[in-house]
Design a protein that fits this description.
Layout lengths: L9 H8 L4 H8 L4 E2 L3 E12 L4 E8 L4 E6 L7 E4 L3 H5 L2 H4 L4 E11 L4 E10 L2 H4 L7 H4 L9 H8 L7 E5 L2 E4 L6 H10 L7 H12 L7 E8 L17 E8 L4 E6 L16 E5 L2 H13 L3 E4 L2 H15 L9 E3 L4 E3 L3 E4 H6 L1 H7 L9 H9 L15 H37 L3 H4 L4 H15 L7 H8 L18 E2 L4 E11 L2 H8 L33 H21 L6 H20 L14 H24 L3 E6 L2 E5 L3 H15 L3 E12 L6 E5 L4 E4 L10 H15 L6 H21 L5 H4 L1 E4 L13 H11 L9 E6 L6 E3 L10 H18 L4 H5 L4 H6 L1
Parallel strand pairs: 1-4, 10-14, 12-13, 14-17
Antiparallel strand pairs: 2-3, 2-8, 3-4, 5-7, 6-7, 8-9, 10-11, 11-12, 15-16, 18-20, 19-21, 19-22, 20-21, 22-23, 23-24, 25-26, 26-27
Helix pairs in contact: 2-10, 7-17, 9-20, 13-21, 14-15, 15-17, 15-21, 19-20, 19-22, 20-21, 22-23, 24-25, 25-28
The protein binds a DNA duplex through helix 17, helix 22 and helix 27.
Length: 867
Amino acid sequence: METLEKYFSKGESREEQSLVKESEAFQELFYKPNLATNLTKAYLVGAGYDGEKHLAFLKLYEPEEGKIYIWYDDSFHKPYCFSKQSIQELQLNEALIKHEGFEKFEEEEKYDALEDKKVKVTKIIAKDPLSIGGKPSGSIRDILKAWEADIKYTECYIYDKGLIPGMPYKVENGKLIPIEYSLNPQILNAIKNALKDDVNNLDLLLNWAKLLECPVPKFLRAAVDIEVYSPIATRMPSASEAEYPVICASIVGVDGEKKVFLLKRENIQEGDAPLPNETKVIYVNDERKLLLELFKAMLKYPFILTFNGDDFDLKYLYNRAKKLGFPKESIPIELGRESASVIHGIHIDLYKFFFNRSIQIYAFNQKYRENTLDDVGKALIQFGKKEIQKPISELTYSELAAYCLTDSIITLNLTTFNDSLVMKIIMALSRIAVMPMEDVSRQGVSNWIRSMLYNEHRKRGYLIPRSDDILSLKGVTATEAVIKGKKYKGAIVVEPLQGIHFNVAVLDFASLYPSIIKVWNLGYETILCPHEECKSNKVPGTPHWVCTKKRALESLLIGSLRDLRVKWYKVKAKDKTLNEETRNLYAVIQSALKVVLNASYGVFGAETFSLYCPPVAEATAAIGRYIITKTIEKAKELGVNVVYGDTDSIFLGNPTEEQLKELINWSKSTLKMELEVDKWYRYVALSSRKKNYLGVYKDGTVDIKGLTGKKRHIPEFLKRAFYEMIQILSQVETKEEFNEAKEKIKKIVKDCYFNLKNRKYSLEDLAFKIVISKPPKGYVKTTPQHVKAAQLLESKGIEIKPGDLISFVKVIGDLGVKPTSLASIEEVDTRKYVEYIESTFEQVLDALGTNLSELIGHTKLEAFFEG
DNA sequence: GCGGACTGCTTACCT
DNA sequence: ACAGGTAAGCAGTCCGCG
């Protein structure tokens, strides 16, 4: 049996016994920033505002030393906003003139894109950011109609100085100088060549390429995790109260350092849970010492990673340290309203990053479904949380250490796997969004796009429009949505032609909506523009028109990013002549671009987007409908059988190469849209349902879309039976072979039914697993089954939070359901499960031109087997 | 008082 | 806090029924 002895660093642990004089110990933690006076190469990773010095500052990361340097603004840049009133008029505004934060006026000329004309504006300069906006009342933006008054000051600073977060800079005698990155001539030529069709915005495009191709440094980082004592096992201690002691903390560095700090408590056994070899286990008698040592260890790493550190770990540490009498300056943590930062560097909360829906779907292809460290870890690095059988507070020292350490290891590894993929994505997004890493990793895609567009406005001297002005000028939609309560009509789904179709080509438009925004010049300034002569340039299917005189910034930016992704990064990511590392890099960039592009249409229809402009979104969707409709017409004209289509794709039954070529060329020349062959199926099984099909590729791999058997809430036993059926269908090559397949499917259904009736399946197999999206009390209109189950769990004292996965089985009785953990196999309502078997299989049999009753010869499974 | 038709709610999915 | 469209199952309501 191994004991913890070997992990002890004997000397250190003796030292722990006698606490150094406290004040001296705290002194060690007092943060002394490294000031940037001369640096040869450092990356811009953060920005802030120093309230005492009244100066903006930047955080520059020097990767050779692994240190962060602080650089203070040397231009006396001040926060400001704009007014359309003249200085003379504003002079009469007493509240403004006498405002304690007001400094001075300056006259400026800006381009007002909403009106398409130059405007004279007055720049109202303030002494500090809060005076512009942010005070509970009486900020300058509250006393008059102001423009650009709700941009975060650090962002404002970054845009004005032309800085790009994530890019390298040097400092010479205190002066900050960008390090120009130039593309190597070979790459430059290759890009030019790939994009030769789009010469008009080549410069913009090459500028993006420079940002994206510029190498990313290695980040000296460590993951931190803590465990807190809790008197009630099922309850998470509150981070704002920080009532209970931190009993364990771990820190795992990318340099291999692994430390676990354990608080000595009474009646806790050492235990014999194994730990990784180089782990340093440090026991302390005093919780203050534990925090002190952890803080000291954190200070060595400029980048601190956590999983939910904003809301828990760092928040808890900060509040706990204060409670234990730490002087404020000795706590290397600062709490914001919704985040926690580390004073000496950068804190990245990976929970926030992985929780981001766009990241989850487009960057990681829905590989993880729940937003727990366990689920994300298992999905991305095949490494889940340590399983524990007891509450945290009852674990032995070694179990606790192993548990806590594992969390930090997973957290760190989530940023190291695949050649630090996650760090690279964050850097790429940081550069595209012109937003520091800490913000980009916490905020959603609509804020990234906002920041990208704001920066471009500033760069070009555009006045950033107020949301209410956009809305009052261009807030109206003209189409009616199919779904009640939606703002406008969306995409078309083609009625599927039920049955089996062999040799089906699936064509789709590459990035349809971004292409539309590019080709049709869509943006808040060009839709419903003020020019009489543009009014005839109508968006099909709507009364809206689009400007013919000015190019919209959105169209320009989204268009160039789209071209770069489709024609360069996507192609290079698949280029087998490149080595794996290079290909990977291209893949990372293309997926970051994908995340941004996929949202670029939706944001215009999202009220929370600061450039919200519903007719832009409506026009995009309308043009999409026009394009797919015209394409289907053309295909039919060419004599091709269109069997299905959805939004940007059409499924063509057995087309000739000639027909495909003609259709693709027609699309390019007539619609200005790039249509391409995306997939080629050996056969597709279409039921009568939309968004619901099974496609088998020539090599036998299968695409399953929308079928019940694939949905993640369905019981495991049914999923297994479903996939057995898929396995059989994947082997079918010809029409004739379906008969044989049907026989095999019949057997699967039969087996499934008998196992169910004879209660051969475990409760786990029978469990439905449904996410509860609100707290159980939040369901006032109806009480769905998973909520009933959740209520039962709550009555047993189990905490249920939004986002939890509720596992329940269907049972006989009034409620009809029970949580899996509280049910027994005898009370299972098999009839309900039989209905599920029926409907799951019917979906596929429907497409095969048969059904269960035909297959089995009876109308109901039950009747057939019982009879 | 009960069952069928209907609407609305909720979740999971597709593009 | 990116959008709209679709499938499925269940909850709840209304209506007819001497």
